[in-house]
Design goal:
Radius of gyration: 18 Å
Structural class: mainly alpha
Number of domains: 2
Number of helices: 10
Helix content: 40-55%
Strand content: under 5%
Order of helices and strands: EEEEHHHHHHHHHH
Distance between the termini: 27 Å
Low-confidence stretches: 226-247
Length: about 250
């Protein structure tokens, strides 16, 4: 995804995001240092606005792309209710959080491990439906992970959504982290999808396990660990976005 450096105005597809507001783009650490005197005046405000809030000022995630964004997503991941209080449209009918979690998972497996399973598009399959079916079977085997209303019929509907005419939830197309951020307008959402997939499969990536991060983020949502600075650094580490924020 092409962007423009906020300092030198250079256009590039390899820009890095400010780790605090996660919206402003820079091509280098030097450019961010040059722009910091100006950017620091609006950085915190951009952080708040980019995440979206409800009428009470509570941060919602993600701010777009779903029928009903939720509060405290990492707390919900930690207590196994991430999918439970969402409308069915978001889980499997029109949006498909499970589909996106799986699609991002196989993208990561290919990029981080060089894994190209024959049951998905990275291994040459026409679609990733066979692999997604296995993913849903694994999810059903994780006690309490899926909502109480989940059954064979909802699984079939979820599979059909992934093979429908949608230009987004398409199991025949790849999904990258940058696509998730752009579509949902929330840098945290890719991390949530990755942690959900790790909970489904029971396997993280070397040096990047989601359990510790999930608990850390849940603690911060509850007001612990000093708030935003640690939050920004944690988002940075898990999503692979280089931190160039200088305070």
């Amino acid at each position: 995804m092409q962007g423009t450096c906020n300092s030198c105005k250079k256009a590039s597809s390899e820009l890095k995001r400010c780790a605090k507001c996660t919206t402003t783009l820079y091509c280098s650490r030097d450019c961010q240092k040059t722009d910091w005197k100006t950017h620091k005046k609006i950085c915190g405000k951009q952080t708040h606005e980019s995440l979206g809030t409800d009428s009470a000022g509570t941060v919602l995630s993600p701010p777009k792309g779903l029928e009903k964004p939720i509060t405290k997503p990492f707390t919900r991941l930690d207590n196994n209710t991430y999918l439970h209080e969402r409308p069915e449209e978001d889980v499997y009918r029109d949006i498909g959080v499970l589909i996106d979690s799986y699609r991002l998972r196989i993208e990561d497996e290919y990029n981080l491990e060089g894994k190209a399973a024959v049951d998905n598009i990275y291994g040459g399959a026409e679609s990733s439906l066979p692999g997604f079916r296995k993913f849903l079977q694994l999810a059903a085997g994780q006690a309490g992970l899926l909502p109480p209303w989940w059954n064979d019929q909802t699984q079939k509907a979820c599979e059909e959504l992934g093979m429908g005419s949608s230009q987004w939830q398409d199991l025949r197309r790849a999904l990258e982290k940058s696509d998730v951020i752009e579509h949902y307008g929330d840098p945290r959402f890719a991390m949530q999808l990755r942690i959900l997939a790790e909970m489904v499969t029971g396997r993280g990536f070397p040096g990047n396990g989601g359990t510790q991060v999930r608990k850390m983020m849940a603690m911060m949502e509850g007001g612990g660990m000093g708030g935003r600075p640690m939050y920004a650094a944690t988002v940075d580490a898990v999503t692979g976005t280089s931190s160039i924020l200088q305070s």
